[in-house]
Amino acid sequence: MVRMHCLTFQFYGMAYNPRYHQLPIADLKRRVGATAIDFVSAWLIGVLGGSVLGPGFGQWLSFVVAWFVLRVLVVQNNRGQSPGHWALDMKVVHESSGRMPRFEGLARREGALGFACSLVFISFFSYGVLLFVLGLPIGYDLWMASTDRELGQTLHDRWGRTVVINTVRGYSLDLKLRDWFEDFREKSRRY
Q1: Residue 69 included in any domain
Q2: Does residue 82 fall inside a structural domain?
Q3: 15, part of any domain
Q4: Which of 41, 70, 133, 153 is a Cys-bridge partner for 157, taking CB atoms 3.0 to 4.6 Å apart?
Q5: Which of 180, 71, 166 is nearest to 116 (CA)?
Q6: What domain range includes position 165?
Q7: Has residue 164 got a pLDDT over 70?
């Protein structure tokens, strides 16, 4: 007898696993928010590291190292959650097993995204047109996620064979901010 949840079918060259439908796939807006939190954290470390290592290359090197630490080493030791994913209740899992991805998969995933984010980091210290040109890889990555209706995988997710899912473990920053704004709006209407 064959168990259905273990089957993997080939469909136009892509593997189809019914388990995907069991995973609570994270929303693209929340994923962008988590990446922005991690980007700002790595950016601040890069700017501070630039004051020690020197501007330009020192800032970029500090940013890349901080990105690797925040998005690979912390994720490995924090059950699949970077600080941004933890703040918004998400985690990274392997696409076929639903478990924590291996180090190699995380390094591939974050190497691709880290490269694109480092281009954006470089463009902050240059002219406006360069911001648009160097931001194109991030835009393409977001476009890939918006066109994938089933899993919402970006290009770096596909390279790392990962999926970002919702989880209960985290800080729920987005929900707390929403409640705070609703309370503020309600109190401002009273007065």
Answers
A1: yes
A2: yes
A3: no
A4: 153
A5: 71
A6: 26-190
A7: yes
Is residue 90 within 8 A of residue 81, CB to CB? The reply is yes
How many residues are present in the chain?
191
Distance CA 132, CA 114 (A): 17
Contact 173, 81 (CB under 8 A): no
Q: Phi and psi of 166, rounded to 5°?
A: -80, 150
The whole-number pLDDT of residue 184 equals: 92
pLDDT band at 142 (very low <50, low <70, confident <90, very high): very high
Instruction: Count CB atoms within 10 A of the CB of residue 82.
Output: 26
Q: Where are the alpha helices (DSSP H) in the chain?
A: 28-53, 57-68, 74-77, 83-87, 103-123, 128-134, 136-147, 155-160, 173-190
Question: Has residue 104 been placed in a domain?
Answer: yes
Q: What per-residue string of b and e applies to 38-60 under the rule 16 or more CB within 10 Å gives b?
A: bbebbbebbbebbeeeeeeeebb
> Residue 80's closest CA among 94, 66, 68, 67?
94
pTM of the shown model: 0.82
Q: What is the DSSP letter of 27?
A: P
